[in-house]
Amino acid sequence: MPRPIQAIIDPLALRHNLNRVRAAAPDVRIWAVVKANAYGHGIERAYPGLQGADGFALLDLDEAQRVRALGWRGPILLLEGVFEPRDLELCSRLNLWHTVHCDEQIDMLAAHKTHQPHRVFLKMNSGMNRLGFAPQRYRSVWTRLDALPQVDEISLMTHFSDADSRSGIARQLRVFEDATRDLSGERTLGNSAAVLRHGRHAPVRADWIRPGIAVYGSAPDYPEHDIAHWGLQPTMTLSSRIIAVQQLESGDTVGYGSSFKADTPMRIGVVACGYADGYPRHCSTGTPVLVDGVRTRMVGRVSMDMITVDLTPVPAAGSGSQVTLWGRAPGGHVLAIDEIARAGQTVGYELMCALAQRVPVTVPGAGLRDVDSNEGQV
Known about the structure:
By secondary structure, this protein is of the alpha/beta class. It has two domains: 11-223, Alpha-Beta Barrel (TIM Barrel), CATH 3.20.20; 236-362, Lyase, Ornithine Decarboxylase, Chain A, domain 1 (Beta Barrel). It has twelve helices and 19 strands. Strands 8-7-6-5-4-3-2-9 form an eight-stranded parallel sheet. A hairpin with a 5-residue loop joins strand 11 (253-254) and strand 12 (260-261). The longest helix has 14 residues, at 11-24. The chain is elongated and about 80 Å long. Residues 366-378 have low confidence and may be disordered.
């Protein structure tokens, strides 16, 4: 019998979340961001739930080839653009749109021999200070690109650094609006936090938005808001089973470092899940977990292959009982990945992307359930 841990990817929840984002910004087109192998979900597994998007945004050419191989004929955007001149040949062959964020990429385009002009997205550094041209250079760079015969249409883009906080997007929007005034081209603005928190009030026109984490069932501004607040559903569930039960007496300790000491007699369950599976090692006593759909807590430290959980709230639980580490329990209750990420001093993005290769992944068939129903959040 294989080890009982598994991850479940839910295409219906992906579709639901995509529709929630569309409802928050109803008059714009949506890039489904599938970088990092669809945030750890697997591009091929996530694709059925994301086909309602208007385009796919990603980072590298391998991911773009995989999306095309799945049958997608619509727009694909390389969010970081090309890295060397020969990448432009594949952009031409696969009809990829690509970001331009530095002079070197413009030089590559200027030297590129092509019969089909490229659709490019000119990125502004409006305050994130990662990629993009400074606002005071933006117009002259746009003019240089527009003069190249290798360039067809130029779209305008930026990225928000503080959309998930009270600082908001107003400052960067003003910078972007001032620098792009009267420039032609579609605008692509808005990550998950910008869309959900500010989408209906943005003072600048956007033609495209780029939601990422919200599509994958994590709240972009947790803990201020959780997924229930935004009407999102978990798309990845990590589940396992109890493989042993121990009876502790008062004063007994658990695990490495004896970091947990029982103050009364109690039963604990040993769960087949550890940091080698992608569960965050920094989680400790008190991290929530569902056993047979009942909320309880982890006790002690996370080991490579096991964690231990308090069975006091679940007296009937024992060996073989179902454990939900994050996601949706079989009874419908939800343990949001954001709660586990916070307990592990990280974010939901990292947990999704860090799912270990040794964890088997399954995708339930379509029609198993209606993810738009109001199922229990615990």
